[in-house]
Design goal:
The structure is a single chain. This protein has 326 residues and is an alpha+beta fold. The protein has three domains: 1-142, Adenovirus Type 2 Hexon, domain 4 (Distorted Sandwich), CATH 2.70.9; 143-258, Jelly Rolls, CATH 2.60.120; 286-326, no CATH class. 22% of the residues lie in helices and 37% in strands. The strands form three sheets. The chain has an eight-stranded mixed sheet. Strands 1, 3, 6, 7, 8 and 10 form a six-stranded antiparallel sheet that branches. It has a four-stranded antiparallel sheet with strand order 12-17-14-15. The radius of gyration is 26 Å and the shape is globular. The chain starts with a strand and ends in a 15-residue tail after the last helix.
């Protein structure tokens, strides 16, 4: 895995945007916003909506407040620090291009666009800079993920929400502003997957995510329990929210498939791995050959092997002339 600075975006008064991603395979983006104002405290509310567009489609579109809860729950929490009045505050977030149980990378190829957008600072600031990094790894593009947040209002009775994405992997609901729902239900292709009170589903969320605090105050409904991509395959999903009051968000991850690109990127990544393995085998094979039969090997090769072995705390006992020092 590699991490690389993509861009530094001034978002004090205007939206930030960059498309400076090299053609490569990205498992995600990690960014942080550094902001400050003389005499003022800068809260996490300074970070607005975040969007990632890949090959003409929005694959991420969510407020930072929701996206960061999702990432903190499932992937660990990057640095977020609220400074005192006049001091710099830092707010970070990881944007995954995969489901936690389904490894994947998106492959930006020639003539494809990968763009990162972030709203201008949502609080009055003197300075605000967003630092954007790409995380790169040699994995095929098995699917293109789509992570989008929607806003709704809880109320008396049951709210029926039809999801317009197929192949839903997971849904995260934030707690309504005023009171929690009494019942949450999720149907996938008319099959009831989840049904329970907010409290029990929040407890299950914390157990599965292995966190020790309920401070995130979210419910996470996951369709992938065995790490199999066929667990995601579906045509439609329906979310039923009964009771509660106030605004809430539901964040949906769904997958889109492109068999041609999957095959192409699998061939590419397998070739990279095989080349690394073959190089290692050839190098180690040469070393073994020299140690086993040094008499017909060039002195500079023997010297090189001696140095490599010494770095590991071992000695070959060979002299550059091909004989043994033992």
């Amino acid at each position: 895995m590699k991490i690389r600075l993509i861009d530094e975006l001034n978002i004090a008064t205007t939206q930030g945007y960059t498309n400076r991603f090299d053609d490569d395979s990205y498992v995600g983006i990690i960014f942080y916003v550094k902001a400050q104002k003389a005499g003022s405290v800068i809260t996490s509310g300074v970070v607005g909506n975040v969007r990632v567009n890949y090959a003409g489609d929005d694959i991420v579109n969510a407020p930072y407040s929701v996206l960061s809860k999702y990432a903190d729950l499932l992937f660990g929490k990057p640095r977020s620090h609220q400074g005192a009045a006049g001091e710099a505050s830092y707010y970070g977030c990881f944007i995954p291009f995969y489901h936690p149980s389904l490894p994947n990378a998106i492959h930006k190829e020639i003539n494809e666009n990968l763009g990162f957008y972030i709203d201008k600072a949502q609080e009055s600031v003197d300075t605000a800079v967003c630092y954007v990094y790409g995380i790169i790894d040699d994995l095929p593009e098995l699917y293109t993920p789509r992570l989008v947040a929607y806003r709704e209002n809880a109320d008396t009775g049951t709210k029926k929400i039809l999801l317009d994405q197929s192949n839903v992997t997971c849904i995260m609901l934030t707690a309504p502003a005023t009171s929690d729902p009494t019942l949450i239900q999720l149907l996938i292709d008319n099959d009831l997957k989840y049904s329970g009170s907010w409290q029990i589903l929040e407890d299950l969320t914390n157990v599965l995510a292995r966190i020790e605090s309920t401070s995130l105050d979210v419910v996470y409904l996951d369709m992938v329990q065995k790490g199999e991509i066929n667990e995601t395959l579906s045509d439609e999903a329906t979310l039923l929210v009964t009771g509660g009051s106030g605004a809430f968000y539901y964040l949906v991850q769904s997958l889109k498939f492109n068999a041609i690109k999957t095959v192409r990127t699998a061939i590419k990544t397998n070739a990279i791995m095989n080349n690394k393995l073959q190089t290692k085998i050839n190098r180690e094979g040469t070393k073994v050959s020299i140690i086993r039969n040094p008499t017909n090997k060039a002195p500079h090769l023997i010297t090189k092997v001696n140095k490599e072995m010494e770095n590991t705390g071992l000695s070959t006992g060979l002299s550059p002339g091909g004989g043994s020092n033992v």
